[in-house]
Specification:
With about 400 residues, the chain is α/β, with parallel strands linked by helices. It contains 16 helices and 13 strands. A six-stranded mixed beta sheet has the order 3-2-1-4-7-13. A five-stranded mixed beta sheet has the order 10-9-8-11-12. Strand 8 (about 185-190) and strand 9 form a beta hairpin. It is globular, with a radius of gyration of 21 Å.
Amino acid sequence: MALVIGMNSGSSFDGIDVVLIETDLAPDGHPLRPHFIAGIAHAWPVEVAAQVLRAFANELTIFELCRLNYTVGAVYAEAARQLLADRALDPVKVTAIGVDGQTIYQEPPNRSGMRDLPPEASLVKRWLDGPYPCGLQIGEPSLIAAHTEITTVSQFRPADHAIGGTGAPLMQYLDFVAFRETGPVLTLNIGGIANCQFAHPDRARMRAFDTGPGNVMLDHAARRLFSLPHDPDGRLAAAGAVDEGMLAHLLSHPFFARRPPRSAWRLDFGAEYADSVLDTYAGMRPEDIMATLCAFTATSIVRAVEEHIPDIVDLDVLVASGGGVRNAYLMRLLRERLPAHLRLTTSDEYGIPAQFKEAIKFATLAFATINNVANNIPACSGASRYTILGKIAPAPRLARGIPG
């Protein structure tokens, strides 16, 4: 069995989750369902977090972004080293680290533009003015590998972008690995952005797509309205009432006109959009705004499930994960709005801690990468074929040909 570290800092940008898992290759060539061993939360240094937030807002020069890429890599290296120290674990015993990096920018494919592109168009034309997707994740993997002495796999999305895929969400491969022996299951991850996966033993039948906002607007509103990093347990929202007019306005967002495969990012539901909404409804009670934003997340999830998941009547459970599951009010709204036959539970029921599932995802993807296993799912992302996601930075200790 192999030990693998996974790290995640998602669109909610509320810290780095670090996990240690154990897995191996199964007879079918894919990883076994990962066994969770340990997990920690590592805080972003305040001065680094401030720069990342500026990068989200496109306020850094290219020179500043270059240095931030290395700085973020150092933060990830320290996070991994913290876990190693807590477990008194020799890095030599760890097969790999999987970390996507901190997404700074994400641009989904323009499907109609891709279809209209003449067959003779050059590769350069696909990306020069679009319509092919792109994205930027920072956190230099060579720095992580050098300062942990563990081979590091990072930046999983560009390989999918290169062949026309959305590159997001990425949860579907872990769900395939975890549930391929138990039959079809529907999963939901509520991070900054929420995404839904229909996992199936036949990858050609799988579906995965972003449903809309998860916590990103809720956290922004909590910071602006209450000077809190988030709404603890959804208590602020529970003290308010949903405003149906505001909810209808939110649900008219153009993101919901996109058909899967689709992905969302801060350009859709980030600070600029959230501030415009908060300004428009500044006369409302803050608690009512929080309640309505919770209803926005819940309603957009339910609508996406009902509209885009095939054979939903044959499914009986929705397995949730991510930071959003700790919002009791949001989970209550989901239970009230989901089809009656769908039981809402968390991935903890299946041995995958909900808080750490995204970090477990990157550990699983990394293990597949270093074993040359196809770990994208074209039916989910719209990619033209299978490929190997991730860029590998070998640990320096593995170098050969060093003078004696």
